[in-house]
Amino acid sequence: MTTPEISHSGKIVDIQPDFITVEIVAESACASCHAAGLCHTADAAHKQIAVPFTFGDWQIGQEVRVFLKRSMGFKAVWLSYAIPLVILLAVLLGLLELGFGELSAALLAIGAVCFYYLGLLFFRDKLRNEYSFYIKEK
Question: What is the mean predicted confidence (pLDDT) over 49-72?
């Protein structure tokens, strides 16, 4: 059974009146492998998340858990990976079918994906408001 939330362990690195910045370690699937140190393909990235301030006795350096609704995680995957892939393939195959050369079709398809990401950039504040993280003490 899956949980309705995605959670990560983190540490509070900054506290502001409006938000708390929490640093989490995002590990790839192979980062936890026992042979990760030998093959050099494992990676772990430190990411900082701004969480809206909630009342509590928060302190810098405090270990917390950061939560996000699982449905929001799936929406992020769709917005960042699935939709751009569909755009790329649709434009590429459509232009090839219309008789464009491979190079020009590929460049225009990549341009269409760039245009999509530019649109996401313009709507980032609206999207940021939809993704609400919250924290709990560990």
Answer: 78
